[in-house]
Amino acid sequence: MTILPRGGALGMALITKPQDKHLYRRSELEKELMVLLGGRNAELLIFGKASSGAAQDLQEASRISLVARLGFGSDGSLFNLAALPRDASLQLEGAIEQTDRLLRQMNARCFDLLERNESILREVTTELSKSETIPGSYVYDLIRRSGAPQPEVCDAIGLSEAACSPATRG
Fold this sequence. Notes:
CATH architecture: Up-down Bundle
Low-confidence stretches: none
Order of helices and strands: HHHHHHH
CATH topology: Methane Monooxygenase Hydroxylase, Chain G, domain 1
Shape: globular
Number of strands: 0
Mean pLDDT: 77
Oligomer: single chain
Distance between the termini: 22 Å
Structural class: mainly alpha
């Protein structure tokens, strides 16, 4: 994780996956949404307002949310957005509403998760302000040391419950 500018980003968290994937479960896409919404929600929690820094993340979250809502058949529907003709702007209105509903749900979950773990967020922020870049292992260790990390925290960042357990700290 770094606050050093990279390309168009003023800072970033790079999360590497153990392998390339082409098929995703809805729950996996929801975890991706939580990660993408994390930076904006951290700003809201710490500063009380968001900056334009999360614009790219919101764009990607919107794309993933659309896939999660319409690619899996939402609310009992078997409709897939890819079936729409290119000039189907009217049909997109309902799709946008469904997508926005999912984004709002995931945003609320993300903010709640950060709020419950604000002490970890503040420690990460303090360390980043000192050294500008921190390894993921530092964040994982903070989660482990926090006492009783919620399984949702570990799950959202891709750690197994065993790896996230305070009993595994060294």
